[in-house]
Amino acid sequence: MAKRKTIRTIPQARTPMPEQAPEIRITNFEEVACGYRLEDALLEAERCLDCPDQPCVRGCPVGIDIPGFIRKIAEKNFHGAYDVITDTNLLPSVCGRVCPQESQCEGVCTVGERLEPVAIGRLERFIGDRAIAEGWTNLPYIERNRHKVGVVGSGPAGMACAADMAKAGCEVTVFEAFQEPGGVLKYGIPDFRLPNSVVDAEIEKLRQLGIRFECNTLVGRLFTLEQMMGEMGFSAVFVGTGAGYPSFMGIPGESLGGVLSANEWLTRCNLMHGRDFPAYDTPLQPGKHVAVIGAGNTAMDAMRVALRVGAEKVTCVYRRSAAEAPARAEEIHHAQQEGIDFQWLTSPVELIGDEQHRVRAMRCERMELGEPDASGRRRPVPVAGSAFEIECDMVVFAIGTNANPILGQTSGLKLDKRGYIWTDDTLATSIAGVFAGGDIVTGAATVIQAMGAGRRAARAMKAYLGLRDTDAVYLAAPTDPAERLFGIPRRERGFARVHLPETAS
Amino acid sequence: MSDFEIVARSDFSDVTFSLEVRHPLMARAAKPGQFVIVMEHEHGERIPLTLADFDRDKGTITLVIQAVGKTTREMQQNCRVGTRLHALVGPMGIPSHIGAAKKVICVGGGLGVAPIYPQARAYKESGAYVIGVLGFRNKGLIFWEDKFRACCDELILCTDDGSAGIKGLVTEGIKQSISAHADIDEVVAIGPPIMMKGCAEATRPFGIKTMVSLNPVMVDGTGMCGGCRVKIGEVVKFACVDGPDFDGHLVDFDDLMARLGRFRPTEKAALEAWQESCRLRGGAGH
Ligand SMILES: Cc1cc2nc3c(=O)[nH]c(=O)nc-3n(C[C@H](O)[C@H](O)[C@H](O)COP(=O)(O)OP(=O)(O)OC[C@H]3O[C@@H](n4cnc5c(N)ncnc54)[C@H](O)[C@@H]3O)c2cc1C
Ligand SMILES: Cc1cc2nc3c(=O)[nH]c(=O)nc-3n(C[C@H](O)[C@H](O)[C@H](O)COP(=O)(O)OP(=O)(O)OC[C@H]3O[C@@H](n4cnc5c(N)ncnc54)[C@H](O)[C@@H]3O)c2cc1C
Ligand code: SF4
Ligand code: FES
């Protein structure tokens, strides 16, 4: 037997990923990080210790067999690596790019205790991209059953659920309100982070599993969930409609021209190609001095898009400090490199307009951190007499979203007190046969958490339909930290587990 | 869901036309007061249009469109019987509440004439006495008079120049109806914001409930972009999911009108660029 690798025998430095220089990339929408070349991937794969206890797998909300796929890369069996990943995750090119690995798999990687952790996300992306480039698929043998399953919403939650149900033999139709499937991946996250072509390629793989996508379909209004479960003949329905309804602060001046939500800004730019106006018809009207409120991934995306469509100055206004900013570390870093001006501990109090009813400045107050609040973060408190103005001709609100009201208005779904869909531990809703997951249940979260929820709901749906749980065999043995992190009962994952429902302990 | 084929078209004037589009599911689901979002082609803009009519038996919906800017003019030029829309989604919005009102005035101004039709018909079907007040700039622009006569107990036409019906704005028609009938329960008004504002002011002194259908700039129509936010009293609502019908006495029309103008410079540029390219193409072809 070969000698076990140790932390001392592996390449000590993490293999860097080639990146576009900041001054170049702010002039285009090409990807910032260019991806590993073959030799980079092989080198990085050498850094995995193949730990017996596999902390990384537990850190992954869908439990990808991480050492398994990295081992296959090291053996140059890329096809095999792809099969290992796609047994649990159908969107490796997406997740490899946008998952917050630093707080998930890489955050608990053993190598990370002494050196930089294995670049799991980059390796995942490497495999996913290779599969797209070379047209690989991992089509399982599917035994058809008589069940028709409907999925509402084509974001990551819906896609993950649809894939599992299709693999279990159901006839799956995904309904999407927009003209193209993909959810936030398509309309929200910009091309320089996640090209729409990558999302399209991953969706194409779902089509190969036999999943149908019906776009231009607003469920709740064109037909109701009850109709789906009744006259339309669906045996079960999954709702993954996301939490799109944008929040504003309620400060004076929000209805001025040039003031918009990050969702509107990003949708106009990404899905509707406003940046290619007039070749595309949707107007963008980018500002010269743009102020974005918030410091999550959405805010970073909104700011970096603004830079790329010609803003001269972009300011991030956030009421807490950098340490509390919810965006991925890598995104904040990239934004800083690109020259975005961060005003931490700053809160807007009023937007000021000109005679044309367009915004011309934002009045702000400096904040300091006081006692911790309910979220455990220190509460920002205004500093008396610190008001000042930021000149701006565009203001983007990226301060979070709420539940979309349509399905609540049109069906008998029980909602929680904030308007999100209520589910039990198996993700079953109050309507028999209807399950829900992703942002519409938890509130805004992450791509992989939404996928995890879609897969969890799929298991419950299979149990509900009396189908054999086909993916249990792929999953690693359960233990705990991710359960605490992501609220996903890991016990569901065990080989031995046969029946749902189970509840988190 | 459907391939969005255009099965009929009629032109009411040089700027208004109607399209009948096949979409059986939508024809079944549609209710008065709702709207759709259309994309004419792959590079197009998503634009909201009211469901002016729907025929459940034929499985079609009808849109009435006024060619004002690039997208609507392009549709006027390209949407012929047999062509297809790239995208059509809906019905959107909360259906109008057709309550137990016994006597209502349905007011349509300009393009609002089309969307008021399903409401007038629904009120008639619910047993109400329906007074139609329709405003046009001149006689030549009048359309659907017969359709309205069929569902209104009284029909008052108003034209700006007096070429048909009474001379004046729809508010004149409202005043006449109110003085002729002391027992109006409700007024429903659809049209340009300035007209709806006028209607709301005309009924305010009488305390008659007045519903209006708001038309802010929309992108998705599903409550996701917040572009359609409107001020209703002290609160902000999203017209696409909380409306588009609101109590006219609470609407901040000035705010609505200011927000409608927010893309005007770009819209103008788009229209000019498009007209230029049409001239070029036309020139090359002839
Ligand atoms: C700008 C931005 C950047 C982000 N960056 C990251 C990141 O870097 N990493 C990360 O992990 N997460 C990121 N997130 C969060 C992540 O994208 C979301 O958590 C995830 O997409 C949620 O997935 P979902 O499937 O629940 O819903 P969504 O992706 O929101 O998809 C819901 C879909 O349902 C459709 N829909 C809604 N209602 C209906 C209806 N009634 N009928 C039919 N269809 C309907 C919507 O049109 C939409 O396509 C980001 C989010 C945004 C907005
Ligand atoms: C709920 C609703 C129902 C509507 N119903 C109809 C209808 O039945 N028939 C009809 O002809 N028009 C209707 N409209 C208006 C129609 O959407 C606009 O005329 C159209 O978007 C203009 O596009 P354009 O490119 O031709 O013109 P543009 O050059 O883009 O704009 C011309 C003017 O139209 C308004 N406008 C532009 N974009 C939008 C938008 N996305 N949403 C709303 N207004 C906009 C602005 O005031 C603008 O100044 C409705 C609007 C709403 C919100
Ligand atoms: S924790 Fe890190 S080193 Fe250990 S198996 Fe996972 S990726 Fe490899
Ligand atoms: S149109 Fe986007 S929220 Fe209403």
Automatic annotation (TrEMBL), chain A:
Documented EC number(s): 1.4.1.13, 1.4.1.14
Protein keywords: Oxidoreductase
InterPro entries membership: DPD_II (IPR028261), FAD/NAD-bd_sf (IPR036188), FAD/NAD-binding_dom (IPR023753), Helical_ferredxn (IPR009051), SudA-like (IPR006004)
Domain Dihydroprymidine dehydrogenase: 25-135
GO molecular function annotation: glutamate synthase (NADH) activity; glutamate synthase (NADPH) activity; iron-sulfur cluster binding
Domain of life: Bacteria
Limits of the FAD/NAD(P)-binding domain: 148-454
Residues annotated as signal peptide: none
NCBIfam families noted in UniProt: gltA
Protein name (record): Glutamate synthase (NADPH/NADH) small chain
The organism's taxonomic lineage, starting at the top: Bacteria, Pseudomonadati, Pseudomonadota, Betaproteobacteria, Rhodocyclales
TrEMBL record, chain B:
One GO molecular-function entry: flavin adenine dinucleotide binding
Family annotation (Gene3D superfamilies): Nucleotide-binding domain of ferredoxin-NADP reductase (FNR) module, Translation factors
Ligand binding (FAD): 64-66
Recorded coiled-coil stretches: none
Binding site for [2Fe-2S] cluster: 225, 228, 240
GO biological process: pyrimidine nucleotide biosynthetic process
Keyword Plastid: no
Cofactor: FAD; [2Fe-2S] cluster
InterPro entries recorded: Cyt_c3_hydrogenase_gsu, Dihydroorotate_DH_Fe-S-bd, FAD-bd_FR_type, FNR_nucleotide-bd, PyrK_electron_transfer, Riboflavin_synthase-like_b-brl
UniProt keywords, alphabetically: 2Fe-2S, FAD, Flavoprotein, Iron, Iron-sulfur, Metal-binding
Protein's UniProt name: NAD(P)H-flavin reductase
FAD-binding FR-type domain location: 1-98
Cofactor: binding comment: Binds 1 FAD per subunit. Binds 1 [2Fe-2S] cluster per subunit.
